[in-house]
Amino acid sequence: MNRRLGGGRSPQVRDVTVDGDGVRARARREVILDLHVDGRRVWSFWLHRDGTPVPGARGLRLVEWPKTLRGFLDGTARMSVHVHDGSGPPLFEDDVPLGSGEGPIEIATPDGRPITLDRSLRRVVAFEAKSAAEVEPLMHAIGEVLGILAEAGVHAFLAYGTLLGAVRNGALIGHDADADLGYVSDHDHPVDVARESFRLQRALTDRGHTVTRYSTAAFKVEVAESDGTVRGLDVFGGFMREGLLHLMGEIIEPFRREWVLPLGEATLEGHRFPVPADTDRFLTITYGPSWRVPDPAFHFTTPRSTHRRFNGWFRGIRVGRALWDRRYASRPGPAEKPTGLARFVARREAGPAEVVDLGCGTGGDALFFARRGVPTVGLDLVPKGYATAREVAEREGLPVRFLELNLVSLRSTLATAALLAAEPRPRVLLARHLVDALGTPGRHELYRLARLLLADGGTLYLEFLARDASGRYGRKHKVRPRRPALVARELEASGATIVAQRVLTRRRPSRPGAGRTRICRMVVRWES
């Protein structure tokens, strides 16, 4: 069960200060504190859980600035600290200079939308900064998605924070930033639940919705608000098995189907939506028995057994996803110069019919080939990575398209291969830093995809880290060294022929006798 604050009197909080390190305070009992910047709540935390003892100062704890806020903290702002229940005056309030201390501190998106940290310390535009009119598109989307799911045979309902807000006060929770739906399938086997989830995704995309998949039993529907903010409407699949409710989002608890169905109703932002039959029991297994007490710093504490079971059943397609989501969270632009591998391929290949950049990242190499007039496809796991490159290509009218590819999903591999192979032609494939980023299953899917795409002729160019003298190269590119002999054996086992192989020295030794970082480049073909 998730840990909650105890009851009783409000804790006495003393010696509260805010400086370049973070927030310091003393309290005998746990307390939720809010940090306000220029009168607006930006961050909430538990003093004891999230803080560390200050050496030599008995009882004093320091809660450091989250990494997601530090980039904004250069200037001066009016900062205050409050007990989250709103009782009493501010515990601290003053003009606080941070960094250079020059100019105002503005914690906002580049276009001026106020940013708040959610319970996972991610930067979000929270509902508390929105008017009723601004969240109306989300309410409309909830109703529409619920209707489409019902037509597809699934009776979905408000879940998690969205259900909590509806039951507690009939409104979205101010510190929340997305909406949640859940459903309990008629199936009780994980495979059937996964198949049903993909069927539901197709029903939504057929009606024009953009869907991003979290796992084989959960996905997100993207909803655009009037000011351009894109909200996630999460749809979590669930099912009953052996007397337990399994609901994605980390719930495996003893439950009865009649506590969910038939569905009841609750009001959210003036709209009536379906909710579980027994909302008290449902919210108790979600947030604990103190779910009625607001807590913007609440953390889910999932039993290891629950996490492992859901990972094994449904999350195999998310291996490594979090790492690359974080890397491309800011939508970086494409590199101005092509990589060495792209230049090497351009010299070797005279007018290829099509170039496919596997793991295209920010899309710089794909744009390089497209600007040379070569039809190009960029494939990557994280669409955010190539989003800016796609906009550049549309603006310049380049012959390039970008598609999502997940090499730890057989479904994604085969669907991508079928889509591209529908136009028979020789192709040139690039795979830079894929072999060294993927585990064994992902590498085998890479070889499978290459074999299918090169059925009409063409060549695969691989480049990967073979030796990392200092570890710096691997950390920078998020890769691990792979032995060329191992990669060669895997390729040959898939029916490939290695036409050429070369090991390149990339860096001088970091210290005497340390050796050099080496990159392996392979030219590979599959004979028809």
Report a brief summary of the structure.
With 528 residues, this protein is an alpha+beta fold. It contains 15 helices and 26 strands.
Could you name the key traits of this structure?
528 residues; alpha+beta; LicD_transferase; Rossmann fold; 7-stranded mixed β-sheet; 15 helices; Immunoglobulin-like; 26 strands; Beta Polymerase, domain 2; SAM-dependent_MTases_sf; disordered N terminus; Methyltransf_25; 29% strand; Methyltransferase domain-containing protein
Description:
This protein has 528 residues and is of the alpha+beta class. The chain folds into 3 domains: 13-107, Immunoglobulin-like; 127-318, Beta Polymerase, domain 2 (2-Layer Sandwich); 325-526, Vaccinia Virus protein VP39 (Rossmann fold, 3-Layer(aba) Sandwich), CATH 3.40.50.150. It is 29% helix and 29% strand. The strands form 6 sheets. Strands 11, 12, 13, 14, 15, 16 and 17 form a 7-stranded mixed sheet that branches. Helix 4 crosses helix 6 (279-287). The chain is globular. InterPro entries: LicD_transferase (IPR052613), Methyltransf_25 (IPR041698), SAM-dependent_MTases_sf (IPR029063). Residues 355-411 form the Methyltransferase domain. This is Methyltransferase domain-containing protein.
- The total of helices stands at 15
N-to-C CA distance = 57 Å
Average the pLDDT over all residues and give the rounded result: 88
Largest sheet: 7 strands, mixed
Q: Any idea of the CATH class of the largest domain?
A: Alpha Beta
- Calculate Rg over CA atoms: 26 Å
| CATH superfamily label of the largest domain | Vaccinia Virus protein VP39
Indicate how many domains the architecture comprises: 3
Organism: Nocardioides marinquilinus
Protein name: Methyltransferase domain-containing protein
Pfam families: Methyltransf_25 (PF13649)
Domain Methyltransferase: 355-411
